[in-house]
Amino acid sequence: LKETKPEIFRECLFGTGHVNFDAAISKFKKCGVNSYLAEMWCVDSNWEENIKNASIFLRKKLDSAYNSLY
To answer: Is the CB of residue 3 less than 8 Å from the CB of residue 14?
Structure first.
C-alpha cells in the first residue's frame, strides 16, 4: 500500500494523498488478499512519528475492511 498525490510518489504521508484505501482494500479482500506491505519515504526528522501514524492509519483501514461482514 502506498499513498500518492498527483505527480508525487514519494514523501507523501498516509492519509494526505488521493488514494482511496477503503475501496482498494475492499477490492483486494474480494480477490483473496490477506497480507499487505506499506511503502513510504520518511526523510524528515519526524520519521518515527510518521511511521507510527502510518501504522495507525493503515490498521484502521484494514480492521474496518476485514472486520466487516462483507
So the answer is: yes
Amino acid at residue number 67: N
- Cβ neighbours for 20, distance < 8 A, ≥ 6 positions apart: none
pLDDT band at 12, cuts 50/70/90?
very high
Burial class (CB in 10 A: 0-12, 13-18, 19+), 53: middle
pLDDT in tens, 38-70: 998 888 899 999 999 999 999 999 999 998 765
Provide the grid cell at 13: 504521508
pTM for this structure?
0.87
Query: CA-to-CA distance for 25 and 61, rounded, in angstroms?
Result: 8
- Furthest CA-CA distance within the chain: 40
